[in-house]
Description:
The complex is a heterotetramer, with 2 copies of chain A and 2 copies of chain C. Chain A is built from 3 helices and 5 strands, in the order E-H-E-H-H-E-E-E. By secondary structure, chain A is of the alpha+beta class. Chain A has a single domain (2-79), classed as Beta-grasp domain (Ubiquitin-like (UB roll)). The relative contact order of chain A is 0.29. Chain C is α+β, with helices and mostly antiparallel strands. Chain A binds chain D through residues 6, 8-10, 58, 61-63, 75, 77, 79-85, and chain D through 34, 50-53, 55-56, 59-60, 81, 92-93, 113, 116-125, 134-138.
Amino acid sequence: xxxxxxxxxxxxxxxxxxxxxxxxxxxxxxxxxxKNYLALRGDIWTNLFNGKQVVRAAINxxxxxxxxxxxxxxxxxxxxxxxxx
Amino acid sequence: xxxxxxxxxxxxxxxxxxxxxxxxxxxxxxxxxxKNYLALRGDIWTNLFNGKQVVRAAINxxxxxxxxxxxxxxxxxxxxxxxxx
Amino acid sequence: MTxxxxxxxxxxxxxxxxxxxxxxxxxxxxxxxxxxxxxxxGDAINTxxxxxxxxxxxxxxxxxxxxxxxxxxxxxxxxxxxxGIMQPLDQIVLVVVSGAxxxxxxxxxxxxxxxxxxxxxxxxxxxxxxxxxxxxxKISDDAAKARWIK
Amino acid sequence: MTxxxxxxxxxxxxxxxxxxxxxxxxxxxxxxxxxxxxxxxGDAINTxxxxxxxxxxxxxxxxxxxxxxxxxxxxxxxxxxxxGIMQPLDQIVLVVVSGAxxxxxxxxxxxxxxxxxxxxxxxxxxxxxxxxxxxxxKISDDAAKARWIK
Lengths: 85, 85, 150, 150
C-alpha cells in the first residue's frame, strides 16, 4: 500500500530529505513494522530506526504510539521528541 | 499607655470614624484585651468586638493574632477579613 | 521586586515588557490580571470601590513578594494593585513573575495572588441596583492560601 | 479558543486586552510568555530557530485547548506560537486563559504549557559559537506533563 512519509528536525537532516512516497510490502502495517522496514535500508537509517533512539510518530497529524496501525494513503511523520514553547 | 487605633471598611462605617487615640488602663496589653475593652462601650461596639464577628487586627502595619501584645505608642488597626485582588 | 498601589489604570503590555527585557536569562513570565466582573452574587455591578490601609498595604505586598522569592527560583516580580472607584471590565490587579523556567514562575505567581487575597489590607465595596454592600471574604480564598502553609 | 502559529512577533498587551474585554464575566486572566534565553546548557545563544510540522501544529494546539476547556471552568484561551529564527529576548510563545476565577485559569494555563512542551510538533535549533545544535527534550517536561494524566 502507498503511504507518504515525512521527516522533521534532526531526522530530516540525517536522512537529508523531508518527505517521500513509499509503497509498503504486504505485512508492514504498524509504526513499529515501518520503523523496522526503514532500518533495513542500512547506515543512517539503521541508526535512526533500530529502536535505540527515541523517534516519535504521527499518523495523519495525530501523535501515535508504535503499535498504531497504518492504512493506505496515510501521512506518517517521524521526528525526535518535541521541544517547543 | 497611649495607642492609636484605626478602623477600616465596614467597621469604620459602623463606628463612624476612622481613627482615635486611646489611653489604655493598666492590664489591657493584648489584642483580645483591647477588643474586650472596646466592647464595653456598648451598642455597636459590643456587636463588633464581642467575638461573634471576625475582626482582624494589625499592629504597626503587620497582621497579628489576638494573643499579640500591644505596647505604648503602637498603631493598632481593626478591620474585617480582606477582599482585595 | 516592585510593588505599586495606585488609583490609575496600568498597561499590561508595558509592565510585562519592562520585566521581560530587564534580564536575558528570563525564559518564562507568568502574569495574572484581575478585572471587575459585571455580576457578583447574582446582582449587576455598577461600581466597585477598593479601600485600603495606606500605611500597611505596601509593606504587606512586599512581604508576600519576599516570601515568594525565598520559596521559588524566580528572577523578579511585580505587583500593581489599584484603589478607588472602578467599573466592570476595569483592571484591578496585575501580578507578574519572571524566572528562568516556567514551573517556579507559575507557582510563585499563584502564591502571590493567594496571599494577596487573604493578607493584603484591601476591601471591596460594590454598588448594585439595591445599593451599596461590602464584599464578603471567601472561604475558598482561605483554602487557597492554606495550600501553601508549610 | 484561538490558535495562531506565525513568524511575526506578537503584542502581549493587545492580545490580553482582546480576551479581557470580550466578556464581562471574566474576573481572572492568567498568561504565560516564553522568551529566548541568552544562555542554554552553558553556551551563549546567538539564534534560535523554531521548526514545526505545519500540517499538524494547529490541530495539536487546538486539541490541547479543547482538553483544557473540558477539564476546567474557563471562558476562553489563546495560544500564539512563533516559528522561524529568533534571538535572545525575543518572545517565543504566549498562552492566555480567561475565566471567572483564578484557580481554574492558573491550572488551565499551566496545563496548556505542559502539553504544548511535550505534544506540539515544534523543534528548536540553537546556534552558538560552537555551531548549530538541536535542543534536546527535557525529562522535566515529561514529568510536568505526567502530573496531569488522569
